[in-house]
Amino acid sequence: MFNDNTIKMNPFVYNSPVRGKDFFNREQAVEKILKETVRGKSQGSIWITGERQIGKTSLLRHVQSMNDEFNEKVTPYGTKKSLDVAFVFANVQGCENEDEFYNTLWQGLKDFFDFKLKKGANGYKNFINAMTEVYIRRKYFTVFLIDEFDAFIETISYKEIHTATNFLAKLSSLLQEIDEIDEGSKTFSCVFTANHDIKELLTANGIDNRGSGLIVEALNLKWFTQTQVSELVKKYMKDSDFQFTESEIELCFKSAQGYPYFTQKMLSLMYDAKKIITNDKQYRNTVKVEFGEMFKETIEDWGGDNMPMRTLKKLIEMVQKMDLGRQFTVVVMKTLEIYLRAKMGP
After folding, report:
1. Rounded to whole angstroms, how far apart are CA atoms 314 and 164?
2. In this structure, are 163 and 282 located in the same domain?
């Protein structure tokens, strides 16, 4: 048994989103975002899809943190201007309408630039005034990091489908050129995060794909491989007084299948159990049982009409491969099948 005085705080316990030195294994995603939005020729937009708690918000927050060190200039498509870049975060999950959406972007710009523009009654006008200040006067190209975008689209489409279609078409037009600024060029790009991919979102909400007009590059956040889980363990436990064996890392991977959120939870359980349990069989049984209960409670909390079909199918595949015992697997599969039947209808 280890001496508790020599063991440091559990390195796998953290609050979402992951920040700073704890940010891990999304280097390629960051590079793609930069390439598509500011380093490419056309300053495009990106739609980031991934399951819940896979790290979408952490990715956006990481890109936002690059403001302090990003010194590259951008030449907006259609101009010869050389502009600075501002990465502006905006969570739009709670927005109820278009007005609130544009006011949220306005607030993000105000927080970043600390300008003195007053907020008027019209959200769209507020946004245009802010973009004029940022693009014309301060000479910045903005990359909006828009979190939970699908939740907002679901909200406005639930009230009236054509509202969502018209909004997406308008936003797509703005991404090409803002008529009120009259510069004949792009003034901003967007990085959207969503649990649904864009096709699934439009189909599920009855939105006309042709009418929406939103043009984006797709980026699907992947789960960790076993090698990446091993690298994560080494990164987080480099200052620890004990280490996980390759056998324990394999146990983690077989249990969580590389899903980042569940991988972190499993490693956290393993770390705490390792401090107090010396018998290997008892240790493994304990973490399997605790992880199984945590997993079951989590997917029950996630369940419902808003869980994407793609996520349901991936969770079913995950459970079929997990090494947590038949009794647990049967219970969880029944829960997932209920969600699946509800999603597919009678």
Report:
1. 28
2. no
Name the residue range of residue 72's domain: 26-220
Would you state the structure tokens that stand for residue 117, as one six-digit string?
A: 């523009």
For the chain, the domain total comes to 2
H/E stretch holding 4 reads: none
> 19 phi and psi, to 5 degrees?
-130, 165
Q: How far apart are CA 24 and CA 219, in angstroms?
A: 17
Query: Locate tokens 């302090």: which residue?
Result: 68
pLDDT tens digits, one per residue of 185-194: 889 999 999 9
Shared domain for 162 and 281, answered yes or no, is no
Same domain, 237 and 97: no
pLDDT at position 3 over 60: no
Using pLDDT thresholds of 50, 70 and 90, give the confidence band for residue 1: very low
Please tell me which residue, 24 or 243, carries the higher pLDDT value: 243
Laid out side by side, the sheet with 84-91 consists of 84-91, 140-147, 188-194, 46-49, 217-220
Token look-up 């595949």 returns 317
